[in-house]
Amino acid sequence: MSQPKKYKSCASCRKSKLKCEYDQTKPMPVICDKCELRGVECVFDEKFDEKKAITAIDERLDKIESSIGLMVSLIRQHSLESHESSSSSPNVFPSPTNSSTITSKSEDSPMTNVHGQDVLNMRRGISFLPSIKYILNSRDVDIDPKTRNFDSAFPGTATGMLSEIVPNLPDSEAAKRQKRRKLQSQVGILPGQVTQGEIEQLLNFFTVRLARYLPVLIFHQIPKLDISLQHTSPLLFSSILAVASLYDSTMINKHGLFLSQFETIVREIDPNSIQPNADPAFIYQVLKDCLGLIIAGAWLGTEFGFRMSLMASDMIGRLLPDSEIDFNLPPELRPLFCSLGIGTYIIEQRLRIIHDRPVPYMYKGADYRTKRDLYLPMFLSETIPRKDFVATKLDPTQLKATANVELCSVMMMYQQEMNQSGRLPFNELMSWNAHLNGWLAEWIGKLTAHVKLSSWKPVILSFHFAKLFLNVRVLEHHEPIPQKEVIQVFGLAKNSAMDILEMLYDDDIRRLVSVSPVFYPTIFVTAGAFLLKLLHVSASLGYQLDKTYTIRVIRDTYKTLSEKISFEESPCFSTIDKLGECLRKVELEISNPSAAIPAIKQEILTRDTYSAIPSYALPPRGNSVNGFAFQQSPQPNGAPMHQQQVQPMMATSSSNVSSPQPQQDSEKKVIANSMSPTSKTEAQQLPIQGQQHQPLQQPPLQHPLQAQAQNNDFDIWKFDMNDPYFMTDAHSNILFQSVFNSK
């Protein structure tokens, strides 16, 4: 008989996730270098083949249940014979001679009457015996009969054997397994369309491949994801299937089916029924629904996904009382509630950032989301470290959640400031950059020391995007600044963009991109779009950069993204395709700079696949699309550029990068807008706030969605209404539009 195999690493090294080094030429037992250095016991455990053991137990269970079934059938046969002859011969069975046997009185025997009360009593007694297989699959099951209804909690018990005696009892576990083996290809949640095997495949795909990329680890706080979830939480169940089918290449053809089922369930939610301090069972159900909504929001990402994230935030806010003192939840629900409160915030803010949807004033339902935001410090403080964690070590779950919350908060703060004021002075821009650098200095040590390598890399990626987002986004909303300062801003943005794209050479990040929420692929597309725009206008700006290396990195990025996200149904597919088109145009410009390259005529912005509103083209922002075009003409009488008289442009015209003009003072080169709306109404027809500079005496333009919100015309709970100003992946699409429309 072969010796049992042992792990190649000792128990101490495996627990610490360290490489176990020792002389492998020596026979066991040996002491590894790390255990010898620390003076601890070095133990090499034997491997336990769990799959083989469970298979063996299943076989034994089948034999035991078959034996019990045979015994029950014999008892049934004898009991029926006894019942038939009871009128003529009441004592069919001889009186026992051994005191250990059943009583001799036939009326006291539980089998004297098949339909009698004694049989039911026996059924109740046997039902307190949970099946071995259930106990193996439920290590933390509560087996106290005082606190659990075993008839429903343990469906696969020996009670099933009585189905041959008492009518209408469920089949035995062995019979159920036999039916599953025969009908597995025919049984499905949607009969004739989806099989049970496909459902289990998608649930496993989500658990293994996708769940880890949620910003907060939640799934250890809810039951195991299995097919029973369709009854306990239909919304969460359909959400997982809709998302998993979108990212599982073998199930992409079923995505539309699951998405339609999910949307049907979502439409049945009654937000008015959600009240603070409700019944714990009801709150638990609402929390699972919120989890399903943020899963859809994170991975679907379009306007539909954005709406799902808003609904989840709204539902969390409805469960919260006005004061933390009144926040009375059972201890078993508080960790899940706090984790979901953090998760809804991060997902919502990420989608607001990439789709350029800052929080508008007087937005209907914003009170509930604001209430959620006020509870964030409490949510973060209650993410209790695991009991098995060393007390002197920071909890990685709490670190990861806090880092993501802080980054999202910083980005939303300066996005909000830019959209409110319409400009951000250069000194404030540098202050925000210093603030982000300070954040990284504070967090880098904590993350690298206490969080797994594959877990803190996405946080660092988000940090680089925060800097890129700041230094590119601000150029849409500033007063004219000297070209020297503009070059400095471009340098910061270019460094962040290159840092982002170079991270895609890492294996962990490549795996992340293929199955992660849409926030992460969008980061790479936006960085590539910025660098392509910078290459496109570098000659006009007088900005020097290594074009060959930059093009090579962008080309590698496009190749990787195309390989990892290759299905048209993917939310980021269209922007990745535009990245390739823009790359080809810029490469042609660089290879033949003297040739006049016509503008590529194509519709850049389209509605997402879940909206019935037709596609529309983006009205251009003139020569200041993301601030890359500049004007070198002198300022008359020292007046700011935004006060100069500029010819208004129609919203459907193409934007051109203005060519350099001679001037007397080189230090007066400035960036300025060449587009000024003729009226507030015309300005509100543009999809993004703060697109044009206004004279100082005019107030900042109001976001169109804010105007709608003030009239309560837009409600996330009204599914027949859509946001006509929504733009998927707004920042990259604006950059692509400016390159495509230029000549």
Fold blueprint:
Elements: H1 11-16, H2 33-38, H3 50-84, H4 117-126, H5 132-137, H6 150-153, H7 173-183, H8 196-210, H9 229-232, H10 234-247, H11 255-266, H12 280-300, H13 303-319, H14 334-354, H15 366-374, H16 376-381, H17 396-421, H18 426-450, H19 453-473, H20 483-502, H21 507-515, H22 519-541, H23 547-564, H24 573-591, H25 680-684, H26 704-710, H27 730-741
What report would you give on this structure?
- The structure is a single chain.
- This protein has 743 residues and is mainly alpha-helical.
- The longest helix is centred in the N-terminal third of the chain and has 35 residues, at 50-84.
- Helix 19 (453-473) packs antiparallel against helix 20 (483-502) and helix 23 packs antiparallel against helix 24 (573-591).
- Among the domains are: 1-48, CD2-Gal4, CATH 4.10.240; 50-85 and 109-183, no CATH class.
- The chain is built from 27 helices and no strands.
- 38% of the residues are buried.
- It has helices at residues 11-16, 33-38, 50-84, 117-126, 132-137, 150-153, 173-183, 196-210, 229-232, 234-247, 255-266, 280-300, 303-319, 334-354, 366-374, 376-381, 396-421, 426-450, 453-473, 483-502, 507-515, 519-541, 547-564, 573-591, 680-684, 704-710, 730-741.
